[in-house]
Specification:
The structure holds 2 protein chains of 2 kinds. By secondary structure, chain A is α+β, with helices and mostly antiparallel strands. Chain A is built from 11 helices and 17 strands. Chain B has 2 domains: about 325 residues, Succinyl-CoA synthetase domains (Rossmann fold), CATH 3.40.50.261; about 140 residues, Cytochrome P450-Terp, domain 2 (Cytochrome p450-Terp, domain 2, Orthogonal Bundle), CATH 1.10.230. The longest helix of chain B is centred in the C-terminal third of the chain and has 21 residues. Classes of the chains: A alpha+beta, B alpha/beta.
Chain lengths: ~400, ~600
Amino acid sequence: MARKKISEFRAKTLLSAAVGQTYRGFEVDAAQERPAALDRQRSYAVKVDQGVKGRQKQGLVALGRTPDQVYGDISRWHDQGFRYFLVEPFIAYPPDAECYLSIERTREGSLLRYSQRGGVEVERHRSAVQRRLAAGAADLAAAESTLGLPSGWLEPVLKTFDRCYISMLEINPLVVADGQVEVLDLAVEVDDAAGLMAGGVWSPADFRYPRTDAPEEFEVRQLAAGSRASFSLEVLNRDGAVFLLLSGGGGSLVVADEVYSRGFGRKLANYGEYSGNPTEPETYRYAKQVLSLLLRSAAPQKVLIIGGGVANFTDVSVTFRGIIQALEDEAGRLRQQRVKVFVRRGGPGAATGLRQMRDALARQDLLGLVAGPELSLGEVVSEALGGLKRA
Amino acid sequence: MPSAQLFDIARLRGEPKIVVVGSYGSIIQSMLDFDHLAGRRSPSVVAIIGTGRKSERYFFGRTEIMIPVVPSPAALPPGALRQVNFFLNLSSGRRVLDSTRQLLAALPNLVGGVVFAEGVPERQALQLQRLTARKGVWMVGAASVGLVVPGSIKLGAIGGTQPRQLEEARLLEAGSVAVISSSGGMVNELIRLVAGSGRRLSWALALGGERFPLTAPREAFLAAQADPPTKAIAYFGELGGRDEYELAELLQQGAVTKPVVCYIAGTVAELFTTPPQFGHAKAMAAREDESARAKRAALAAAGAQVAETFNDIAVLLQRLPDGPGPAPPPGDNRAHLLESRRPALFASSISRDAGGAVQLLGQDLLGLAEQRSFAWIVASLLLGKPVRSAELERFVEFVLRLLVDHGPYVSGAVNTMVTARAGRDLVSSLAAGLLTIGPRFGGAINAAAAAWLEGVVAAKSPAHFVEEQAARRLYIAGIGHRKYRVDAPDPRVERLLRFADGLPQQRFTGFAIAVEQITAQKKGNLILNVDGAIAAVLLDLLSERESYSDEQLRSLVEQEFFNALFVLSRAVGLTAHYLDQRRLDEGLFRLPEDQVTRADVDLSEQ
């Protein structure tokens, strides 16, 4: 469905293999194991390995650490909620040696971006970044010469880039000293639609997210992995007041925009959507996860917005049956928390689906509003936010 | 990159002949309903590429039709191959590249098509894009719900799958606003907003929310500019990617001069330092200039009417120059007529009741009975279409006579006689005999046809074929006889083979005889038998006199057609044996005990 970050550990293992080196770092999963014994004579770099942007600035990277300090860093970050870490031998280098290199898959081809002024300040030196499509050997040679890379270094990297269905690869900083290439920080995004074609060099177990999943998010990922329909769920604010149970990539985005543009962005609890005509048990499972988030939120007042645009081929009566079942399961607790539900939807089977939804919500005293396409997406959001206070 | 000329709306306003890859009943049905409601005389979908059944049943209006299903585009009949000009690919993301390649290779007159699947890997999407340019065939998608040109073509689920939805969305009335959207759901919302504004669509297109859409917004905009009926463009875009800058450039350069109203979704991402992945693969802003806000600003600066909220599009549509004009005449509202359809429980292609008279193959039964031979009626009915050649008719006549009985000693006759003597009735006794027919008795004609067909179609040499069967320790159906030998041939076989004499090719008869020459050298009784001869001659006659393709012959084998003549003819003999036993009034039969020998089996081994 999209580009996914894989762990820096997996990324460095792939890249090292491509250029004929052995990667000497290792990964620590704080939920699984104690970190391996480190060599007391050596100095280490340790960092959070969860695809967090701007790690250095957030203090999630520590350099030149003794083994004891490494253990301490890991345990401190673990307490902050991080789970995956990368430990590797520390390499010292002069600060002005930091270069930048990235490869991105674009419509025109594989796009190289590179600069001799890399490191955390690369954004400030944006004009120094050169762009070049990797169309032939001359393009690779130009980038290699600018960065001082050994001739022929990039070719196997690009091969791996293609073979492993990588979409984005970014090395920053890249340090070349005496012909020795050091890839200090590496971020790689793979194309998760190619999971079965990349030959097992990476798997969904390597995907990393900036923070640890809520159990509901994990559950929805599992649901999506085993279905021909698509599902997504992302917690934005654990104690939010506005919950979304929406269908369609575009419709869900429009509804989220409407909530934001009315000044309720900070109260938005989640984003997510289902699409591709899921089955009734699937929407039941999905709705259960959204309701579980909703019931745990500490917000004093909560609303749930269900539905979305006018479906093309998704059967509204079938998908709504699953949602209604989940609502019925939790009706008592939803009533206790004085939750109101606002629904807007159209498409095949909408007349039946909306009627059943209205009946169920009225019976359970959860009814905010149930409407078809005669009510716009903006209007249903207005209605839902009507009784809430702004952030 | 496909050029603007490639994606040309005018070519969508002709006669669409669509092949659908994969099957999605409600989507295909909605395309046929669109055709019917638009007043087309024939359905636009000509075939489905899929596996399993030979055809699928759909409605065209209220009438059921069969749409042929073929395993690959190359298997389409030559007429259809040349006819097909559009495709709808409903196969999964992983299969899209392969299946689309097959389409482009097999179909010479393709104009364009839609890719429905979500999750086409980026690399494959880029390969498809290059293919598009090379073959001069445009593609929309991936993850596209399709495109629709009111009154002309509906290629995909776009606009809905229920007849009433098509009418409500005004998809049957041509107008002046082109709708272009990255999102499938929002294309529908825009279509409705256009209808609500009193205007009608010139066409609508869902580009799909993938990272690399096969048709980029830029190409769709140029198509709208080049399309005379289109007077304005309504566009839905999202954060992520830089497509909207290309659109802004088109407006600035004056390459697109028609008014544009648009909404770019995803301002909500401003709330987050690390925004979540929104609904579509493309909806992720890697840099500031890919944000919804920045792209809105660029489009507004270039002269587009940019809506602050999605609903404002309705207002902007109202304000478009040259107003909607007089309201188009209301449609016929015939959609509700399509809603109470039920598929029939059975389908039949050979006979029916027409106004009280029975028709066989479209002809009055009484007329046939008066003018046609029994053999002609039998062969035509069994084949499901009228026999054209006198040769086949004569051969069937001869086979029906020849197989009528083979003495009271054969298994089927014995069973009928035993049953008759047990006092059972005609039908029970006949059934007892018929039920004996199978691989060892009477049912070998079909197996022989399968063997000759396999050998001839695969162009195997007879020697190789014989060795292969021997290596697999299989008897060759159609070879071997208990009584006759090479030096004392079966006179029936010689007569049967004469029916192939006038045929120019005799592929099957020739092959069977060549096989016999090899096997008869191995053992004197391994000669072509009656089953093998009937199968070979029938195959040759169907192939050379009735124009059956090898594929059609294979399908006759699958249906067990080649055993049908034996069953029919021998039913006469079995019935006769029943009547004979009744006439003779033989009592209950019991085997003399010395006719059952004791088989010693070592029980300890079991």
